[in-house]
Amino acid sequence: MLKMKIAIQGIKGAFHEVAARKYFGDDITVRECLTFDELCACLQKGEVDKAVMAIENTIAGSLLPNYALIREFKFKVVGEVYLNIKMNLLGIKGADVQSLTKVESHPIALQQCKPFLYGISQDIKLRESNDTAESAKNIATLNDPKQAAVASIRCAEIYGLEVLEKGIETNKQNFTRFLILDKKVADQKDNNKASISFQLGHHVGALSKVLNLFEQHGVNLTKIQSVPVLGKPYEYHFHVDLEWDEYSAYAEAINKILKYTAGFSLLGEYKKGQFNFNE
Predict the structure, then answer these.
(1) pTM, whole model, 2 decimals?
(2) DSSP per-residue codes, 94-133
């Protein structure tokens, strides 16, 4: 039986791969994509079965360009997964934390770990890279005991590195939400969450009318994000995530908001993901 092929942004060991394995299990193969554009192209061409795309982080916020990519490629959101992002200090075997002179990683990862890293030495040099996993692979190649990377535990397993310190991030409640994308609607039961997109006219109360309709039908909005419409200054796409207890109430609310919105798009209905603050 062929393994499911999943597109991820980054290389093996990146948090996208960790998220893919959390959602699908370990019995998958991954297609490494250096950019989100490449990831979308792979899915569009049918080179993979599904794609995993980061959409928001509790510290860095929303990835606005990714909303545009989902609309552009007309992908369907068929699931989501939350990952508690743990930053770890990785070095070659035998490396000593106190002897490190240089640490490499993605700039956001370095930013989140600065207090720990400068606690080693105020003179330690921080080198930015495109990806945490790319940094881990580079450190393994350099084979220098005075250099280390900040990356996932998975990277240590893949690239033969030693975990010098676990959980060096300052904020321990750092979660990233990843969307599971497909070219077609998922045939699954018990969906209780949806992602939609629409535009509104520039008149008083336009957004409040839509929000009130969801409230009246007992539909919970878990996120609302405005994204600029390219080429149309001060016009926006609204991306909204919804949860419900009764599908019929949600469906009725959707039907009623159509007359207040333009360019409405149902991006997907799926089962909401769970996250645990104690992961």
Answers:
(1) 0.94
(2) T--GGG--EEEE-HHHHHHHHHHHHHH-TT-EEEE-S-HH
